[in-house]
From TrEMBL:
Residues 52-147 form the Big-1 domain. SUPFAM superfamilies: Invasin/intimin cell-adhesion fragments. The lineage of its organism: Bacteria, Pseudomonadati, Gemmatimonadota, Gemmatimonadia, Gemmatimonadales. Pfam families: Big_1. InterPro entries: Big_1_dom, Ig-like_fold, Invasin/intimin_cell_adhesion. It comes from Gemmatirosa kalamazoonensis. This is Peptidase M30, hyicolysin. Belongs to the intimin/invasin family.
Length: 689
């Protein structure tokens, strides 16, 4: 394959898999815990050298052989004087006994901590895990052990067995269930951990008798007459560089910017029209004006990467700036003006109606879109994915510190975000991006980043009782809702319509809208469905799996709780002084734990005939959409076959569930039993067919 062909293939595949790097402040520094002050008047974070790594928690646990430990293994990296080291990579490795760690490496958070989950091997015995700071010889060890304690095997007779109709689900109390079989029947037993703490892992071990395993996909592609292919790109996995980039950006901003929030609010309250930095980009700026903007995405408040930018378009709500270092062969002035106009007429209308108005700290009445090759430079050479753009919260902070109050010296002091540019010859890192491709992905990128800008600016300067910025999972989930709302607007559709594959193929307008604005949510969600036992929709990260699950849950919850006025719900979530699950509880007006459990059951029962409405995704026919050949080709929910006499050991973090799949013959009864479970773990029996 020629270099050009490889580049085109990367573009085609990246359009499916790389939107997870539509980074934003929510991705970069959502959450309010563990912030580390940088000093009252300094805007520079010194580089911290790792000198030691120590065990924080998790060592010495015992669990059933084959099960995940109930709690993660946590270590802390510190300097020689004991200060926490954020942003260091810790590598975890099983060095004695049998077991697996996930992840195999993790980046330390603002408090210098990194964690992994150990799943014990099938054999009982001691296990040792070594944690090493990458690039050094600094290490420590943690221990665990596996036991052979299993729940008792239960048998039952058909006369006393639980009988379910296809599509029916029932919550199981106690520690076992007896299931009546039928010809062609298929069942799922789903334990779901509703604990609000995603780190609260529940060890679940299940035994079975009288059942047979069921393998294969839950739903595969159904042929559509007259349709030979789809026009959406193929699926690829998510390269690790994106998660590392996101984690680094988010953690550094937590450490550096959170201590400045109080000072920033004081600055904002005390400012007057004469103190606004109108000299940066005033509201009456004209096309052709040259400005200087910091494009450093690595360090928020130091080591600026100042770029010259030319104002190339001005609309009612947007000022578009093009980096003078951008590659040739990119957007024309007319292209930029078209993007600005689309922002005014489509994106701004959608995002402000659903999430609220952004602030206007620079007094120019516009949002600045900086198209810069600095974004292109974030994508490594020969990558299958790309960084599509980012919003940096540092630009919402003032630049001038006082003796008592810190500031961010390299802030651009304005509502803005940064966007990828066309690079048809691969000038930056050899990665070719055609103008047509960047044109397709830009508007959805803008909708995503604009939600982050609105969310962050309002939490800084409007909702001033807020404890801090929104937690990453919820802020990212809302940004992906913004993408979905853009799809609805462009396709002429809306929520609650159970959109399926035939609908998505019904017109060129709808097909193109899904390819540009809708399919990325399914990509991220599909990654989550492939490993529900390890990924929580409210995990303390902004991985693609977490984002996909968070988007899916928010869509399900809105359809279920507030189907008629969803704009009101989104605004409640954004304009809350609470964060995370507390915010969700207040905004939904109900405890989300039960909704999360029902959502988990929905993942197995959506669009199964006979299923109750609460187990349906009202807006999407998941099986139909995923079965499109260029989405996944089949419904990707991973299930675990259950076989009689073979125990299954699980470790479920808060917000996760497992799908144990089996069949029972006609006229027979099967039984499943499990160990004593925490009260947060709810077990549901589902009949699929």
């Amino acid at each position: 394959m020629s270099h050009s062909a490889a580049s085109n293939d990367r573009e085609r595949r990246a359009h499916r898999a790389a939107w997870g790097l539509l980074l934003a402040f929510g991705a970069a520094c959502g959450g309010d815990g563990g912030a580390r002050a940088t000093g009252p008047s300094s805007s520079t974070s010194p580089a911290l050298a790792a000198a030691a790594v120590s065990v924080v928690s998790g060592s010495g646990q015992t669990a059933a052989a084959g099960a995940a430990l109930p709690a993660p293994l946590v270590v802390k990296v510190t300097t020689a004087n004991g200060s926490a080291v954020p942003g260091a990579t810790v590598v975890f490795q099983v060095t004695s006994g049998t077991g697996t760690v996930s992840p195999s490496s993790a980046v330390t958070d603002a408090s210098g901590q990194a964690s992994t989950q150990l799943t014990l091997g099938a054999n009982a015995g001691a296990v040792q895990v070594t944690a090493t700071v990458q690039g050094t010889t600094i290490s420590t060890t943690l221990s665990a052990s596996g036991s052979t304690v299993m729940p008792p095997t239960v048998t039952c007779a058909p006369a006393g067995a639980q009988s379910l109709a296809p599509g029916q689900a029932t919550t199981v109390s106690g520690s076992s269930v007896c299931v009546a079989g039928a010809a062609g029947s298929e069942f799922v037993l789903e334990p779901f951990n509703t604990a609000s703490d995603p780190g609260a892992r529940a060890a679940v071990t299940v035994q079975a008798s009288g059942v047979d395993p069921v393998t294969g996909v839950l739903a595969s592609r159904a042929p559509v007459p007259g349709v030979s292919s789809d026009v959406v790109p193929d699926v690829v996995g998510a390269p690790a560089f994106r998660d590392a980039f996101e984690a680094r950006l988010r953690l550094r901003r937590i450490a550096e910017l959170t201590p400045m929030i109080s000072a920033a609010r004081g600055w904002y309250a005390a400012r007057t029209s004469s103190t606004l930095r109108r000299s940066v980009i005033p509201g009456n700026v004209s096309v052709g004006t040259v400005v200087r903007l910091n494009a450093n995405s690595d360090l928020p408040c130091s080591n600026p990467d100042y770029r010259g930018g030319v104002v190339v378009a001005v609309s009612g709500r947007a000022i578009v700036v093009a980096d003078t270092l951008n590659p040739t062969g990119g957007f024309t002035t007319a292209d930029y003006q078209s993007i600005a106009t689309t922002f005014d007429t489509l994106v701004d209308a959608i995002d402000t109606r659903n999430f609220g108005q952004p602030t206007d700290i620079d007094g120019n009445g516009h949002v600045i879109m900086f198209f810069t090759s600095a974004v292109n430079a974030l994508t490594p050479r020969n990558s299958d994915a790309y960084v599509g753009g980012f919003f940096d919260s540092r630009d919402l902070f003032p630049t001038r510190a006082t003796r008592d109050l810190p500031a961010c010296a390299t802030s651009n002091v304005g509502e803005m975000f940064y966007l990828l540019v066309p690079d048809p010859t691969g000038m930056v890192n050899g990665n070719r991006f055609t103008k047509s491709f960047i044109t397709r992905v830009t508007i959805a990128t803008v909708a995503h980043e604009y939600q982050h800008l609105i969310n962050s600016s309002r939490r800084l300067y409007v909702n001033t009782q807020s404890v801090g910025f929104e937690e990453p999972w919820l802020d990212e989930g809302l940004a992906h809702i913004a993408e979905e709302l853009l799809f609805y607007a462009r396709a002429g559709l809306g929520p609650g319509r159970d959109i399926d594959a035939p609908t998505l193929r019904s017109s060129t307008t709808i097909t193109n809208a899904f390819g540009d604005d809708g399919i990325e949510n399914f990509d991220r969600f599909g990654l989550y469905l492939q490993n529900t036992v390890r990924n929580s929709p409210y995990a303390d990260n902004d991985s693609l799996e977490t984002r996909g699950a968070a988007w899916s849950f928010l869509r399900y919850a809105a359809d279920r709780v507030q189907p008629a006025a969803q704009e009101t719900l989104w605004q409640k979530i954004v304009n809350s002084n609470a964060v995370g699950l507390t915010n969700l509880r207040q905004s939904l007006g109900t405890d989300p734990a039960a909704l999360f459990r029902d959502w988990g059951v929905m993942l197995a029962l959506d669009d199964v005939p006979g299923a109750d409405a609460r187990y349906q995704m009202q807006s999407w026919n998941l099986r139909s959409v995923f079965a499109m050949p260029n989405v996944d080709g089949s419904y990707p929910l991973r299930t675990t076959p259950v076989a009689s006499g073979t125990p299954i050991a699980l470790g479920l973090p808060g917000g996760t569930g497992a799908y144990l799949r089996f069949t029972v013959g006609a006229g027979k009864a099967g039984a499943l039993s499990w160990n004593a479970l925490p009260q947060d773990v709810l077990v549901t029996l589902v009949r699929l067919r």
